[in-house]
Amino acid sequence: MTATLLRTAADLHARARTGRRAVVMTMGALHEGHATLIRAARKIAGPDGEVVVTVFVNPLQFGAGEDLDRYPRTLDADVELAGKSGADAVFAPSVDEVYPGGEPQVRISAGPMGERLEGASRPGHFDGMLTVVAKLLHLTRPDVALYGQKDAQQLALIRRMVRDLNFGIEIVGVPTVREEDGLALSSRNRYLSPAERRTALALSQALFAGRDRHAAQEALRARAREVPASRARAEALSAIGESRAAADAHAVATTAGGPAAIRAAARLVLDEAARLDPPLRLDYLALVDPSDFTEIGDGFTGEAVLAVAARVGATRLIDNIPLTFGTFGDAS
Question: Were both Cys, which of 25, 130, 161, 204 would link to 108 (CB 3.0–4.6 Å)?
Answer without folding.
Answer: 130
